[in-house]
Automatic annotation (TrEMBL):
This is Transcription antitermination protein NusB. Signal peptide: none annotated. GO terms for molecular function: RNA binding. It comes from Hoeflea halophila. The lineage of its organism: Bacteria, Pseudomonadati, Pseudomonadota, Alphaproteobacteria, Hyphomicrobiales. HAMAP family: NusB. SUPFAM superfamilies: NusB-like. Gene3D superfamilies: NusB-like.
Amino acid sequence: MTEQTPPSAEPKPEFKSANQRGAARLAAVQALYQMDIGGAGVLEIVAEYEAHRLGGEIDGEQYRPADPAWFRAVVSGVVENQRALDPVIRSGLTEDWPLSRLDATLRAILRAGAWELSNKKDVPVAVIVTEYVDVARAFFDGEEPKIVNAVLDRLARKYREDQKPKKD
């Protein structure tokens, strides 16, 4: 599914999030990736991002301002609910792949998207799916954005029976 060259923890230079929530989603995925790979705790990562990354400049690259409350909600929500989210995400995968075999960035994207679908009922399904597909495109050139779209579409049917997910 995704045993290609792993992406870096940084999005492609040409990626620009369109809004503060989009920037918060991108930062949340990066933070979740960093916690997954490096084992850092949620408080430490959130503090680092809020102090240095959200809207800041790193290595000459200006980060877009992000909604800090949205960033915190996604990161802490995923961490607090990961045990419940992972089996649901696994059920959305079509192949017989455990989550641990997925690329860490892809795992972070799916966890963040699944958390939003299950907890941010005021945000339309199409917005959530589109935003996380865009985040996937920031990191991957291959099939991963399609995987994100397909899995989040399946999860939306489970979490949001009242709303139709966006079709690509």
